[in-house]
Amino acid sequence: MEIFMAKYGEIALKGNNKRLFEERMIKNIKRRLSPLGGFTYERAQSTLYITPVSGASENANLNEAERRLLTVFGLGAVQRSLSLPKDYGEIVRLGVPYLENKLVSAKSFKVEAKRADKAFPMNSMELMREFGGAVLEAFPHLKVDLHSPDVTVHLEIRDNNAFVCPNRLQGAGGIPVGTSGKALVLLSGGIDSPVAAYMMAKRGLTVDMLHFQSPPYTSERALIKVESLCEKLSEYCGEIRLFCINLTEAQEDIRDNCPEEFMTVLLRRAMMKIAMKLCGERHYSAVITGESVGQVASQTPAAIICTDDAANLPVYRPVIGMDKIEITAIARKIGTFEISTLPYEDCCTVFTPRRPKLKPLLSDVQRLEKRLNPAFIQDCSENINIKIFGQL
Ligand code: ATP
Ligand code: MG
Fold first, then answer.
1. Domains of the chain, start order
2. For ligand 1, what atom is nearest to the CA of residue 191?
3. In testing the pocket of ligand 1, which one of 184, 187, 193 has its CB within 8 Å of the most ligand atoms?
4. pLDDT tens-place string over residues 210-245
5. CA–CA gap between residue 265 and residue 364 (Å, rounded)
6. Is 187 close to ligand 1, i.e. is its CB under 6 Å away?
7. Going by CA atoms, what residue is nearest to atom 24 of ligand 1?
8. Adjacency order of strands within the sheet including 240-246
């Protein structure tokens, strides 16, 4: 019988409140797997055993289940394994042929054995040697390579059963979504903010999104892009609420009444103020952005002082010290890169100043802001469009 061993990551180290994290993670896993049919869940030794019930055990279904398990924060490793009786003869008889698919195309392998059940008559060393020998006999084209094998076969003798796994995969890590409260992501259509959302969800936050549009300067297609990002991110983050707010009037007000070089920083303060209002009304504990120091004019230390001054809650900036290459690597890994690089305009690019001020003084910015009509900010936070993604 093929099953999944879903092994805990960081939460295995938790003390008294481990149960809370564990329960939340199992809930998140069930939510991800439920559309694929029936599974039973059993936990022991910092591992969740996930067993498909009849119809769910088809190969294509298990492939999809594996893919989904790799998106659940809190898991350190995912092992699709053959569950066997704790009898060495049976382990060889059924376990060796099970490895065929993975081993026919490999050149080298090694066996890693672990005997948690000390009552089992062979120790780990003996298991590695004997089982490795049996594999070699069945697949004589292979070589044993202890240092960098193509395939590492894991053989575990546990309290309940024995398990053979030819492909241990690294889990998504982090801690389960929903164990750290909720925060609001300022989501543009760019590369950085979806990565920021992913990174904070990985720290257990439930994330919802706030996106600013500026019709008619931004098109419906820019919105569709942000919706696709939410859809994609919900694979990791669970249910996501997307709040869309129209920023056009506030933006035109800035354009018409303030020097062009201050436009970016004033716009960012407007965004932050609206976000803070929404956080207050809907009980978010922080705002998350995709800012990275020095990347563009609005992200110089001086500009960040001005943005933070408009915030009355913490602003989490998980990519603050990362360069574009590092951020892009994560975007590719989580599948947001292809969406983020679709060529649709964002409200920030609509009235971009030719030479934005790199070191805006907070006092100047606050003084200029007095020229603006506060009603625009007040009003746009009352006109919210809400969509939900990743619902069951
Ligand atoms: P990104 O790749 O995330 O768009 P960026 O490098 O383009 O970032 P900016 O355009 O300066 O940087 O935006 C900085 C941050 O401000 C973004 O990471 C995002 O959190 C927020 N932001 C920018 N534009 C919008 C928008 N239209 N709606 C909501 N948030 C936005
Ligand atoms: Mg942007």
1. 2-170 (3.30.2130.30), 182-389 (3.40.50.620)
2. 2
3. 193
4. 999 999 998 888 999 999 999 999 999 999 999 999
5. 11
6. yes
7. 188
8. 315-316, 287-288, 182-186, 206-213, 240-246, 384-389
